[in-house]
Specification:
This protein has about 250 residues and is α/β, with parallel strands linked by helices. The chain has a single domain, classed as NAD(P)-binding Rossmann-like Domain (Rossmann fold). Helix content is about 45%, strand content about 15%. The chain is built from eight helices and nine strands. A seven-stranded parallel sheet has the order 3-2-1-4-5-6-7, with helices on both faces. The chain has a two-stranded antiparallel ribbon with strand order 8-9. Helix 5 links the parallel strand 5 and strand 6. Helix 1 packs parallel to helix 2, helix 1 packs across helix 8 and helix 3 packs parallel to helix 4. The radius of gyration is 18 Å and the shape is globular.
């Protein structure tokens, strides 16, 4: 990965942050963006200090189409050629039935998890196709294959990401560009805290008595896919903890 430019959305925490550290160790150039600018500035300084890599960080709310357009138009010329795009930004909000659901939560999940991924990819993919090389990693979820009670709209957005990833592989066929969807089971990050509006105790209960995946596990899986030889494309990777057999089947110690 020496000298390759890797763009990571949602890089301020969780899987995105861990991917940034992983690819910094591989000596990639890193483009990091997230809504929390102060967090990615801190991360930029950490990576430059610890690994001696080049990092460019910028604030980006992927759900805002105009902000995405402005952000990519204003990238310095030396950062416009992106080799790897990791579409990681995403969220789950609430746990309600459709008949009780929050319109604001629905809009936020759809705008971030699906439309935001589209907006960013639309800005990056043409350059990859023109250069006949590049890698797009879409971070989906086991929720892109299964549904669970009261997970309706979140699951729908992740099903959409899996479907879009398949469609993208048709669109780039013959160009040398590769596309992977990564579908983890439960991963212990800030994800549940966001879902439950900062309720740390409720978020912690999701992982009690079981051994979830760690963000590092997902970063290593993404790294494996990206560093396969150019003729190899890992179309999809489903990654589950040993203690999880399906969305609703999780072993917990009593």
């Amino acid at each position: 990965m020496l000298g390759k430019t890797v763009l990571i959305t949602g890089a301020s925490s969780g899987i995105g942050l861990t991917c940034a550290r992983y690819f910094a160790k591989k000596k990639a150039k890193l483009l990091l963006c997230a809504r929390r600018l102060e967090k990615i500035i801190e991360l930029k300084e950490e990576l430059e200090r610890s690994f001696g890599v080049e990092v460019h960080s910028f604030r980006l709310d992927v759900s805002d189409k105009n902000e995405v357009l402005r952000a990519f138009e204003s990238l310095p010329s030396e950062w416009k050629e992106i080799d790897v795009l990791i579409n990681n930004a995403g969220k789950a909000l609430g746990l309600e039935t459709v008949q009780e659901g929050s319109w604001d939560n629905w809009d936020s999940m759809i705008d971030t998890n699906f439309k935001g991924l589209l907006y960013v990819t639309r800005q990056v993919l043409p350059g990859m196709v023109q250069r006949k090389r590049g890698y797009v990693v879409n971070v989906a979820s086991i929720a892109g294959h299964e549904v669970y009670p009261k997970g309706n709209v979140y699951c729908a957005t992740k099903h959409a990401v899996v479907a879009l990833s398949k469609a993208m592989r048709f669109d780039v066929l013959g160009t040398g560009v590769r596309v992977t969807s990564i579908c983890p089971g439960i991963v212990e990050t800030e994800f549940s805290q966001v879902r439950f509006k900062g309720d740390k105790q409720k978020a912690k209960s999701i992982y009690e008595g079981t051994r979830p995946l760690l963000a590092e596990d997902i970063a290593e899986a993404i790294g494996y896919c990206v560093m396969c030889p150019p003729h190899v494309n890992i179309s999809e990777m489903i990654i589950m903890p040993t203690d999880q057999a399906s969305m609703m089947s999780i072993y917990r110690e009593k």
